[in-house]
Please model this.
Amino acid sequence: MKGKRSLVFYLAIIAVFGTAIYTVLLQGKILQQSSDKHARVAASRPSLDTSFHSFKQAFSGNLTHPLAILILQIIAIVLVARLFGFLFNKIGQPTVIGEIVAGIVLGPSVVGIFLPEVSHFLFPAPSLPNLQFLSQVGLILFMFVIGMELDLDVMKKQAHGAIVISHASIIIPYTMGMVLAYFLYTRFAPANISFISFALFMGIAMSITAFPVLARIIQERGLTKSPLGILAITCAAADDITAWCLLAVVIAIVKAGALVSALFTISLAIAYVFLMLLVVKPFLERLGNIYANREMVSKPVMAIVFIVLLLSSYCTEIIGIHALFGAFLAGVVMPSNLKFRRILVDKVEDVSVVLLLPLFFVFTGLRTQIGLLTEGHLWLTCGWVILVAVAGKFGGSTLAARVVGQSWKDSLSIGALMNTRGLMELIVLNIGYDLGILSPQVFAMMVLMALLTTFMTGPALDFINWLMPDKNAADAGKRKKTYRLLLSFGSAQTGGKMLALANQMFGREILNNNLTAINLTYNADITPLQIQEFEKKSFKEINAEAERLNIRIETRYKPVKDIQRAILRITNKEAYDFLLVDAGKSLFKGTFIGNILEATKLLYPENLFETLVGNKKLLPQLMPVDDMMDEKAKRFIEDAQCGVGVFIDRDFKNAQRLLVLLLEDEDQHLLGYSQQFEEHYQSQVVTSTVADKEQLSAFDLLLISNKSWGKAVYKKCPWLEHIPSTLIIKHADQNGFL
Model:
């Protein structure tokens, strides 16, 4: 009744006021006709051609309006940066490398050469200042996050060795950079720049380490809690703080023009640092303690945080040591409470990293003119720049690590990690370019150096591990004596259900000490501050279920670049006998867009190689409907060298009533799995050679082979919509357990 009244009221309002509007327009037209203005209006009424021309002019003006251009630039930059980041992730490189390359591609070095009209339309010269200022805002937010991610407590634990390695990895490349500057100054330094400014800046540019990229490489390789990972993180953090302080001094000297004049700037900077540490930090610590146990930070508190950030950036900018140093220090003095910091990072990081930071990469790419390096001697000079950078940073860090007592393998690994420059190097180079210290040619050389030294980190670590393998890893295959299971899950709730399923399938005696539960997450979406909390939340349900069942399990939480590859690597390298995974959820599976995306996977390097050698079909098989299985689960079935069970959760509680579908002749192996349910959980097992939607509703769990499942999905069998919780089995002949 209430709904009908609302509808009648709505229709009455539309009718009454619509009639009123029409009446006003009609009377106005009569008024216009009776006025002498009508003749002038009619005389000046434009023709159709004139109107269309006016529309074209207005449309063209809208297209080139500064706001429209800026929005289009952001759209293009974010899309291209994410695409290149994704592609570089697929070849085992950090996302930031792909985003930097995307910036160079969109700049004059690629698009500017091959598509000059597109380049001029998308990045007209008058629009670049807007892009630069917006990218600077992104950098300020990013440096604020970097400051918060520094864990000073961890640094204290490894202070002695870390400080020695960190400072050696700065002073050695710094000195080599100044020596290089001596040979480059005459030919490559801008005319109005003194040698001391050029040399000091070349030194600092050679000694930077990219703390964010290094931290994510360590996470992806599972070294976060290892002595090597902790030492490398501590060295990078100490390196970051020292290098930024040195950079502030160098900027002060460059802007002042002389060391004596710079002393005033440096004195102000020191006073400012003490103010932040002794006055602002205690106030923020109190603020963090008040909000320590709250799930959210209120808007007034966030306003205080942003005011501190902006005031800090403003102060360092007017002092003369750059706003980015102020943003970094503002992050360092934020409350040490990890929960408070995590909330701040969550609020700031996505906007800065996903939306604004790619603008900086592209702006750097627009400045990087690789086309300037047209002659052989310029490329030879670029080679010397790269050689000095690698020798100074890699060699200095390795030597220092060996002196403080690290093994040769760990020393070389620390050298490779500290040689990572990435984004932090680009920030320093852009500061030098803005100050007029670096010429366009030197800037291009240094950007290429930053790219290469970051790109080589992963391969260098792989080569070191290959050259000096761990004894434990070499003997991993020899320790297998029992049936071992690997359980991989996405959400915490699913993990608990999957452990209950594994217990009903294999029994407590087999699972006890023989089951490893892993939860892997994409490393670009997690920061060091979040790891411990995310790990605790991820395993909350499965640990509670393990305690209830009295089962001892091993748990692993790990941020990785490629979840599929990581799980397969663990499964095959550690020789597990059975892999139990959740089916996951695919956003586009079974849709037109999904089929297009499926076809584009032919371009992935590994798929392209498999296709060329004949191991894969030219185009993947396109599923006409959503098969309720994510692409990761399908790949596990194809590539895992053991038995695989893919679990589709339909509110699973237990496997008391179990239906086994034997739709193919080779499905008889399912009977071995059903016998395990009977033995360990006393399940009531029913086998059937046909599937009926009425029959399915009577069961708690469906057991079906991967081959039968694939055929049923491709044929769009109607009973698929009525399945209970389902376990899709891929049987491996080498399984000795069943």
The chain has 34 helices and nine strands. Residues 650-731 form a domain with the Rossmann fold fold (CATH 3.40.50). Residues 476-480, 586-594, 618-626 have pLDDT under 50 and may be disordered.
